[in-house]
Amino acid sequence: MELSTSPRKAQALEKVSVLVVLVLLGLSVVDGQRPRVWDYFEYSAISCRAHSAFLTDFGGVGDGTTLNTEAFKAAITHLSQFDSEGGSQLFVPPGRWLTGSFNLTSHFTLYLHRDAVLLASQDINEWPVVDPLPSYGRGRDTTGGRYISLIFGTNLTDVVVTGDNGTIDGQGALWWDKFHNRELQYTRPYLIEIMFSENIQISNLTLVNSPSWNVHPVYSSNIIVQGITILAPVRSPNTDGINPDSCINTRIEDCYIVSGDDCIAVKSGWDEYGITFGMPTKQLVIRRLTCISPTSAVIALGSEMSGGIQDVRAEDILAIDSESGVRIKTAIGRGGYVKDIYVRGMTMKTMKWAFWMTGNYGSHPDENYDPNALPVIQNINYRDMVAENVTMAARLEGIPGDPFMGICISNVTIELEKKAKKLTWNCSDISGISSGVVPLPCELLPDQGPENAVECNFPTESLPIENVEAQMCSSRSKYF
Ligand SMILES: *[C@@H]1O[C@H](CO)[C@@H](O)[C@H](O)[C@H]1NC(C)=O
Ligand SMILES: *[C@@H]1O[C@H](CO)[C@@H](O)[C@H](O)[C@H]1NC(C)=O
Ligand SMILES: *[C@@H]1O[C@H](CO)[C@@H](O)[C@H](O)[C@H]1NC(C)=O
Ligand SMILES: *[C@@H]1O[C@H](CO)[C@@H](O)[C@H](O)[C@H]1NC(C)=O
Ligand SMILES: *[C@@H]1O[C@H](CO)[C@@H](O)[C@H](O)[C@H]1NC(C)=O
Ligand SMILES: *[C@@H]1O[C@H](CO)[C@@H](O)[C@H](O)[C@H]1NC(C)=O
Ligand SMILES: *[C@@H]1O[C@H](CO)[C@@H](O)[C@H](O)[C@H]1NC(C)=O
């Protein structure tokens, strides 16, 4: 990935892309009996490709009922031969493309037309079972293995999954029912999982009805997730939006997420498995996010955080009808740490708790966790926020004998709902300071007074992933 710092060039590119989108709209032609011709694309990506193909070149049929798993496999196997010859891109034309799981390759772009819908197969035999993640020791739903994700990649470099807001539909209802009825033999699949990889872009797509988590980069670095719309019923189980897990240098921006679980859940492995694996999530940027999550958090840190979570910077967040804004979840036995967390510029409307921290989350992979493995929670900074219609300002519960330290909250105004609890801040086993916070926080976060007003920290130097510049890629190809 090229690292560069040229904001002017990026702005120029944005203008070009708007123009091109306008031109593109006129180019999908339906001409009598002839199949549609779709011949010019332009999109922004971390790298462009020399070779192109259409799914239809490999027998793909977009009628919503023909299974396309073999077409995807054949296409990607064929295109993988170009990985050292400028890379390749696979275009998915307008249509409804039923498919089982398939694997990505390196130096590769999967591009979905705005009218393309990938439909996840409802036949469980189409879903190979793979090993549990080494940092979890077991699947999240069941012990043992897990159904592979719909779009999966491992040990890759330079992969783009994008589209002009094309759709991936997980058809998750079948899986949610199996989960509720305890009929699952293995852990439910995710929509997109990229493992042990680097230089990844996932952008401009709509993901609907995932069986479980939506986007799961794990053990990876240099990841951009941008312009993703995620929609799932707000009561669907574990439909987390984007879960960076043991990942370094990640940027998540311009996403709109409505889901039945956390919109963003930052993770790094579970109890003794995560401690042994020892791979943190760090250098994570989250910005311009809109989240609706009535049963969960806008940004959750944990509960699986045993490899550590460090240097998370979140800003420009709009939270609507969610349980909590930022939520740190951990437990005795997790070990690891959550430190150097910075959040600013968050607007919250209708929340149960603006802030929630708990050291009492429980949820262990098995009984072999180490009761002496205590998590370290340190240097947590929240500032410049407004919240309205909140039931309780904050519930901050550290661990007795292992307090959460260095909490700083400044310039935050929380308007409580009419029927709000009398106790607005419920704090235990924490320490820190506050400044300019309404209502006045608990005694464990003493207000510094107007003379000693504090602005909680937010780093001024950017992370490397913030300076990665996209290129405009274009292609003229036809399919008949
Ligand atoms: C996503 O779409 C927007 C608007 O159409 C465009 O400006 C942006 O460049 C696209 N981003 C990527 C990474 O494709
Ligand atoms: C994808 O890769 C995984 C792990 O390498 C493998 O288990 C699975 O069978 C592959 N899937 C397909 C469709 O080839
Ligand atoms: C992928 O990379 C991991 C970590 O480097 C390694 O343990 C694993 O064997 C690799 N898998 C494959 C299929 O190459
Ligand atoms: C993408 O599609 C979704 C679902 O139809 C829609 O809500 C969203 O506004 C679209 N995004 C863009 C950038 O067009
Ligand atoms: C306080 O936060 C608001 C956003 O909620 C922001 O507009 C304002 O500039 C902040 N004030 C200071 C002094 O930083
Ligand atoms: C305030 O929150 C309550 C739930 O606590 C909700 O029922 C009500 O509709 C909200 N009011 C507004 C004005 O959003
Ligand atoms: C305050 O938090 C403690 C746990 O730290 C809990 O037991 C108690 O019920 C809470 N009180 C209220 C009023 O929510």
TrEMBL record:
Belongs to the glycosyl hydrolase 28 family. It comes from the Eukaryota. GO terms for molecular function: polygalacturonase activity. It holds the Pfam family Glyco_hydro_28. Transmembrane segments: none annotated. Keywords: Glycosidase, Hydrolase, Signal. This is Polygalacturonase. The keyword Disulfide bond does not apply. Gene3D superfamilies: Single-stranded right-handed beta-helix, Pectin lyase-like (2.160.20.10). Residues 1-32 form the signal peptide. The keyword Translocase does not apply. InterPro entries: GH28_Enzymes, Glyco_hydro_28, Pectin_lyas_fold, Pectin_lyase_fold/virulence. GO terms for biological process: carbohydrate metabolic process. It comes from Actinidia chinensis var. chinensis (Chinese soft-hair kiwi).
